[in-house]
Amino acid sequence: VNCYYFSFATLLTAVPYFLFFSPISLSVLVEMLGCGILFLSTALLITYASVHVSMVLISILFYAVIVFSGFFNWLFWGQIPDGWTLLGIVLIIAGGIASILVEKRKYKNKSLG
């Protein structure tokens, strides 16, 4: 699945690159390579984790990244979250808790059945 994703993403981004070509500096190229390696690592680790942990838990942790990104954005760059951001954080946390409760109930019902 990851191979298809990366192939599709490469082809999709190649079109605008060639249409609006401009030289890329070495420092930007290194940063892009670092981002690519980190994203590939993330995809591989999520795939590995899906063998050992419920996909519900992985999804919750994946969405928690948004909450932590907002927190670090405030902490390091002083960008105070607005009302919509805070609402989004509350919805992500509530959705995570609800998903855990539903998953827990589902496994409890399976063990009884």
Q: Can you tell me about this structure?
A:
- By secondary structure, the chain is mainly alpha-helical.
- The chain contains four helices and no strands.
- Helix 3 (55-77) runs antiparallel to helix 4 (83-112).
Q: Count of DSSP helices? A: 4
- Biggest sheet, open or closed, and with what strands and sense? none
Number of strands: 0
SSE arrangement, N to C? HHHH
Rg (CA only): 19 Å
What structural category arises from helix and sheet content?
Answer: mainly alpha
DSSP strand (E) fraction?
under 5%
Subunit organisation of the chains = single chain
The shape is: extended
End-to-end Cα distance, whole Å, is: 34 Å
Spans where pLDDT lies below 50 across 5 or more residues: none
Report mean pLDDT, rounded to a whole number: 85
How much helix, percentage-wise, in residues?
Answer: over 70%
Secondary-structure blueprint:
Layout: H1 2-19, H2 26-52, H3 55-77, H4 83-112
Helix pairs in contact: 3-4
Can you give keywords for this protein?
single chain; 113 residues; mainly alpha; 0% strand; extended
Quick take:
The protein is 87% helix and 0% strand. By secondary structure, the chain is mainly alpha-helical. The model has no long low-confidence stretch (mean pLDDT 85).
